[in-house]
Amino acid sequence: MTGGIFMTREIRGKGIARRKFLLAGLGLVGCSTLGAKGLFQSGRASGLPGEAPSASNRGLSGMTASGRLSSPVYSPAGSHLFPLDPLAPAGKSRVLLIKTDSRADGVRKAFAFFRDTKPFRGKKVLIKPNFNTSDETPGSTHNDTLKEILSELRKSGAKELTIGDRSGPEPTEQVFDKKGIRELARAFEARLLNFDELGPDGYVKVTPPGSHWQDGFLVARPVVEAEALVSTCCLKTHGFGGIFTMSLKNSVGIVPRKGYTYMRELHSSPHQRRMIAGINYAYKPTFIILDGLVAFVDQGPMTGPRKEAHVFLAGVDRVAIDAVAVAILKELGSNDAIMKSKVFEQEQIARAAELGLGVSSADDIIIEALDAASADYAAKIRPLLS
After folding, report:
1. Which CATH architecture has domain 5-385?
2. Residue 341 near residue 108 (C-beta atoms within 8 A)
3. What's the whole-number mean pLDDT along residues 67-73?
4. Neighbours of 382 (CB within 10 A)
5. Do the Cβ atoms of 175 and 181 come closer than 8 Å?
6. Whose CB has fewer CB within 10 Å in the chain, the N or C terminal residue?
7. Rg (CA), the chain
């Protein structure tokens, strides 16, 4: 996020004392070890930097030699995370729906449609794929989708490209190797960043308002410091409590796994879906592309029953993207958790809207289409949003 504001905080009842540090231009994106010692001072309240973390989330890679958590507390700039699309009416978000059989076609049309509103020229851009595992798409981001995104960013004049993620349960390095991501990154002179390898200075702490996390959570510093961020996700259900995994759940990969118990806390909590939404409070993506050529309509996220949807979605609003994607699952025919719940009553979507991360109702979504086939499908999807 360009010009993000990082803060140390001392909580006194309801009051929050803040010291603000502007970190724009540090150039830390994509580094395997990110040093920013001396930039942050320790907080003095329970659970804040400068005090040992709770036993539930004690992680060696996030600790200093003295046993203190080194990661600073982060708050989004102005706490304003609603996506900004200058061509959309106030309070509304556009989602481009592309009916296509080609991933290259889907990505190119997405970039062309939003090119004027989301320039990448001269920016250091972080691409966050869906690399949970190396399973075949939609189990993971398709290499053709990632390749075309890298190509479009180069054409857009991006200064520097970094592909960054943290996998799980499959080791991140293994996912990179199995999918041939190192070779793909080299072809576009892009950096490849394994969030598992970030050192103690590689994370910042986030506690969203009304958080369902026990003691907040850490997120990868390169994500919140990115000058621009492209999130690319798949169209699928989630059989381990998330119900669906699209742009909001793609953010789980920015929370550390090695040496921490965040994933155990997440997957054992009755608030799992609200907690997923809360992770997104840490940052605002510049652009989102959802590859929906093929969908999992049950089980997931690694494998499951597949249906062909032949669709790409693009936009700047995670809530709007996921809402339209859930409506597409309804149109395809999915499990009871999808079919029997209203889109904006899904807990991921409801909590994200509550946090101000995007639109709060179907009426606030404008589905854009570039051709007759896309317009016809958008007309089928629209009533399923309500």
Report:
1. 3-Layer(aba) Sandwich (3.40)
2. no
3. 44
4. 14
5. yes
6. C
7. 20
